[in-house]
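> call design_seq(struct)
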């Protein structure tokens, strides 16, 4: 990012796991800069799902840098995640034909449960793979692979953690960090959001607001995807040697496995 310093911009890290995001400031103007950002960002900006895209530039290293309006604000809290505006924005994303067609033009192939299971099996360390809760979960995943026609797949964010929901000082809600975007079953996002943030007694109301019925098939798909994503998170924390967080997710995975055992 040296050339931005040379042009008189002040850069500060904007955090994030990638370390490639910056807050840039010059003459009172603030921008959010990101290296190697997903090219999907332009379509998301046009839909109002992320802060407005200002420009995209290829720098001397060959990397692509995107600049978006800087939004002062904060992440959503756990208690705010069940709010209707979160539900509505997620529904907007899953329903968007524009976003779906954009990913298809980028030649993105649908991610099926079989693909997800193959990837998770290939990614696990021996330490995670041999944990009794993970072994139980993997057996469950093999036996309950969801069946859904890929024609019903939508754009899926893939990481609806509350840290990725930005509420601006002007009360604008955005869903950011689209590096895991895919064409897949929307139950991937729905399951993780409900299991993590919404009391089960409110699931029917949440799903009604979203626009679907709480069927047994949907319950099975939500559980399956939440289990497999939880294993992926456990492996990530193990890779980062963040063992306390890893154990928290092992406990969460165990709770899911014991929840609605009949599905």
């Amino acid at each position: 990012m040296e050339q931005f310093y040379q042009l008189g911009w002040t850069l500060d890290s904007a955090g994030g796991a990638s370390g490639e995001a910056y807050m840039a400031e010059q003459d009172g103007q603030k921008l959010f800069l990101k290296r190697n950002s997903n090219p999907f960002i332009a379509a998301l900006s046009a839909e109002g799902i992320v802060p407005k895209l200002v420009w995209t530039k290829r720098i001397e290293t060959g990397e692509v840098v995107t600049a978006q309006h800087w939004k002062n604000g904060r992440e959503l809290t756990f208690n705010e995640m069940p709010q209707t505006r979160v539900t509505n924005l997620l529904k907007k994303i899953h329903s968007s034909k524009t976003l779906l067609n954009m990913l298809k033009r980028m030649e993105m192939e649908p991610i099926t449960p079989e693909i997800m299971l193959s990837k998770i099996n290939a990614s696990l360390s021996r330490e995670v793979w041999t944990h009794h809760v993970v072994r139980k979960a993997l057996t469950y995943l093999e036996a309950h692979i969801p069946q859904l026609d890929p024609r019903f797949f939508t754009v899926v964010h893939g990481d609806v953690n509350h840290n990725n929901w930005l509420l601006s000082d002007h009360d604008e809600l955005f869903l950011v960090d689209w590096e895991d975007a895919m064409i897949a079953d929307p139950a991937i996002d729905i399951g993780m959001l409900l299991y993590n943030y919404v009391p089960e007694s409110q699931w029917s109301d949440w799903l009604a607001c979203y626009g679907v019925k709480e069927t047994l098939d949907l319950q099975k798909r939500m559980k399956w995807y939440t289990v497999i994503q939880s294993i992926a998170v456990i492996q990530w924390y193990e890779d980062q040697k963040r063992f306390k967080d890893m154990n928290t997710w092992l406990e969460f995975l165990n709770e899911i496995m014991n929840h609605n055992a009949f599905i």
